[in-house]
Design a protein that fits this description.
Strand content: 25-35%
CATH class of the largest domain: Mainly Beta
Number of domains: 2
Shape: globular
Strand order of the largest sheet: 1-2-3-4-5-6-7-8
CATH superfamily of the largest domain: Calycin beta-barrel core domain
CATH architecture of the largest domain: Beta Barrel
Largest sheet: 8 strands, antiparallel, barrel
Number of helices: 3
Oligomer: single chain
Helix content: 10-25%
Length: 188
């Protein structure tokens, strides 16, 4: 076996430093992109009202929903938002969930938390509701969470123009969501 010279050790050390430096910078880039970026500003008065679900990442709390999924947001005087989610189940019954949302980011109003569970007026569970894309006239919105486990495309109308839907999926790709995970919602 050939013995390494001090010059060879220097080359190995330099090589190792180059590799580890690249690895560190790559991790920083990944960490920078880890969290989705929300829109700059949301006017909650314009955001309030009824939205039709166009697509979503399947989740356990909507398993019963087969069509006509809506979310209605009503502003309260105290700054909180009443949330009513509705959908039609397989048997034709309407499922309704009432919750509350609160603003987390009071500068942009694009980060909210939503809770549908209350025990004696206490809400122990909150879910992130981040507005990742919003049409300038509030006609459609892309919503997600930091983990990218949840995501929705919502519209003011039951059907979206093809180009608007493509814009929403472009936003999702830019935010490092996998559009293939989304299923289209039947709206009648």
């Amino acid at each position: 076996m050939k013995k390494l010279k001090s010059r060879d050790y220097l080359y190995v050390l330099i090589f190792a430093l180059i590799i580890s430096t690249q690895s560190i910078f790559a991790q920083d880039d990944d960490q920078e992109l880890t969290e989705p970026v929300t829109v700059e500003k949301v006017d909650l008065n314009l955001y309030a009202g009824t939205w039709y679900e166009i697509a979503r990442i399947p989740n356990r709390f909507q398993d019963q929903c087969v069509k006509n999924v809506t979310a209605t947001y009503t502003l309260r005087e105290n700054g909180k938002i009443d949330v009513i989610n509705r959908c039609v189940e397989e048997d034709g019954n309407v499922d309704e969930a009432e919750g509350i949302a609160q603003v987390v980011d009071e500068i942009s109003f694009s980060k909210l938390e939503v809770s549908f569970v209350s025990f004696l007026g206490i809400r122990p569970f909150w879910g992130d509701y981040w507005i990742l894309g919003l049409e300038e006239n509030y006609q459609y919105v892309v919503v997600g969470d930091p983990s990218r486990d949840y995501g929705w495309i919502l519209s003011r109308t039951k059907k979206m123009k093809k180009e608007d839907l493509e814009t929403c999926f472009k936003i999702l790709r830019e935010q490092r969501y996998d559009p293939e995970k989304f299923v289209m919602t039947l709206q009648e």
